[in-house]
Amino acid sequence: MMIKPLGTVTEIVESAMMDVSYAYEDLIFLEQKGFLLQFTDREEEVQIHINKEVKKSEWAGPLALLQEKAEERTMVFSTGDYFRMSNEDEESVHIQFYKNRHGQKDTNRPKRP
Q1: Largest alpha-carbon pair distance within the chain?
Q2: pLDDT digits (tens, 9 = 90+) for 82-95
Q3: What is the DSSP string of 22-45?
Q4: Contacts of 71 (CB under 8 A, 6+ apart)
Q5: HEC letters along 64-109
Q6: Residues 45-58: what's their mean pLDDT?
Q7: Do residues 35 and 47 lie in contact, with contact meaning Cβ atoms separated by under 8 Å?
Q8: What structural domains does the chain harbor?
């Protein structure tokens, strides 16, 4: 079993002036709702999923900053898919992943809690 470097990822996120709000299994939720991070099978790589409801002008700069800060720590923050998140109830959310901003669902992804 691979140990996920949550501490290092948290430091990278904080150095980019953002905050981690919650980590669950392989997902890292940020206070900034534009991104959702996901650990991959490679210890040094994290995918950055982009909220499809956020304008590119709002996420492009912060995305580049996260990737730059990750590189300084010898990690790779690769661009992942787009996502939409909705509350199912007070304690759970539904996350739908999309291949593109125009709504093509990624049917190969499992449903996330």
Answers
A1: 39
A2: 999 988 788 888 99
A3: EEETTEEEESSTTEEEEE-SSTTE
A4: none
A5: HHHHHHHHHCCCEEEEEEEEEEEEEECCEEEEEEECCCCCCECCCC
A6: 94
A7: no
A8: 6-98 (3.30.750)
